[in-house]
Amino acid sequence: MTDILVVFKKNFESVHDKSLETVKKVLSSIQEEKDIRIDIKAREQVGRADFIGRDLVIVLGGDGTLTSISHNIDANTPVMGVNSHPRDQDPEGSYGFYMDCDIDTFEKDIEVALNGNAIINDIPRLQAVIDTTSGNRYTTDPAMNDLLIANTHQYAPSKYHLRRGSDKCKQQSSGLLFSTWLGQGAWLSHTVDSKTIERLRNRFKQGDWSNHYLFVARDIPHEQRIDDPWSWVDWTSESTILTSDMHRGYVVPDGWDEVHFNRGATITVNTEAPRLCILTFRKTLAEKLEEIIKQ
Predict the structure, then answer these.
(1) CB 30 within 8 A of CB 110
(2) CA pair distance 57, 59, nearest whole angstrom
(3) Which class for 70: exposed (0-12), middle (13-18), buried (19 or more C-beta within 10 A)?
(4) Cα(6)–Cα(47) distance, rounded to whole angstroms?
(5) Which pTM does this prediction carry?
(6) Taking a C-beta distance cutoff of 8 angstroms, is the pair 270, 215 a contact?
(7) What is the per-residue pLDDT for 53?
(8) Predicted pLDDT at 295
(9) For residue 203, what pLDDT is reported?
(10) SS3 (DSSP) at 18
(11) Cα 119 from chain centroid (whole Å)
């Protein structure tokens, strides 16, 4: 038996309701021919236990729907993203970078997925490990796109000691942003100028994106950009370690749950989080990103 979980976006807009009805109808038809078990739940109603032991997770919505529940999904569970409101059909819709399927292609794509012929994208995820001054350790949820580390009071500077390999410095900024290669379009591209992004991309080598990440310290003084360029913007596979000099700060993975820390805490960011298996049907996610970059 193939055990399938469908997670859908529930916001009472008719376009999403219609998409859900189409998915239900297609799956019901397949269920008459194949030995499959299907659970269907709204994004707001799922928990970690709902994802355990699944053979396939279908996420119906947009990228936000996927990132909001992706931390519940382990590395061995294939994820099929279905865009319930594509932007190419409605300017108000979702771009859905990770959602390679839509309602028009769902019937064909689900057959490909169940037959084991979909493209498997093994993508890295970011994590932050927080060591407190009292000896406790916390690991944030894995992030598909990005991690933000900043002062909880956004009007105050983020102060910290930064270390990567043998390089060390003390600086302050408006926050540190870490991004996966595939997640760069989510926030990073709106944080630094296009020339800086292009300079980082020129350092990219085939296969690097599997264990590297992009890093930028937002709004630091210009002299520090020259003196310690690695501490301003970088493309690296090394862990970034910072010790907080803020009264209170937080780590925010993928713009969702906040994990707070106090002064003296040490935060280590790397790509050692459990990876995520996303299915696509026409192109790899890396190929889709390259097309966007060239536009």
Answers:
(1) yes
(2) 6
(3) buried
(4) 13
(5) 0.92
(6) no
(7) 95
(8) 66
(9) 87
(10) helix
(11) 19
239 vs 81, 167, 266, CA distance in Å? 30, 12, 12
Q: What are the structural domains of the chain?
A: 2-123+275-294 (3.40.50.10330), 127-270 (2.60.200.30)
Among candidate residues 3, 38, 45, the one with its CA nearest the CA of residue 24: 38
Handedness of CA 101, 7, 107, 1 (dihedral sign): positive
Angstrom CA distances, 108 to 103, 144, 158, stand at 10, 27, 49
Q: For residue 290, give every residue at least 6 positions away whose Cβ sits within 8 Å of its Cβ, in sequence order, or none.
A: none
Residues 6+ away with beta carbon under 8 Å from 49: none
Taking alpha carbons only, the member of 205, 195, 229 closest to residue 215 is: 229
Listed as own residue / partner, the contacts of 244-247 with beta carbons closer than 8 Å and 24 or more positions apart are 244/159, 244/160, 245/159, 245/160, 245/161, 245/170, 246/151, 246/152, 246/156, 246/158, 246/159, 246/160
CB 124 within 8 A of CB 146: no
Q: Please, what is the Cα angle at 68 between 173 and 179, to 5 degrees?
A: 35
56 close to 78: Cβ distance less than 8 angstroms: yes
Beta strands in the chain, from DSSP E residues, in sequence order:
2-8, 36-42, 56-61, 78-83, 101-102, 119-123, 127-131, 137-139, 146-151, 158-164, 167-173, 176-179, 213-217, 233-236, 240-244, 248-253, 259-262, 266-270, 276-280
- The C-alpha atoms of residue 251 and residue 240 are separated, in whole angstroms, by 14
- Give the tokens for residue 126: 């970011």
Cα 52 to Cα 45: distance, rounded to the nearest angstrom = 15
Mean pLDDT by 10 residues, the chain (295 residues): 92 84 96 93 94 97 94 96 87 86 96 97 97 96 96 95 96 96 84 83 85 94 88 95 97 94 98 97 92 78
Separation of alpha carbons 182 and 201, rounded Å = 12
- For 131, the token pair is 């060591």
Asked whether 50 and 37 are in contact (CB, 8 A), the reply is no
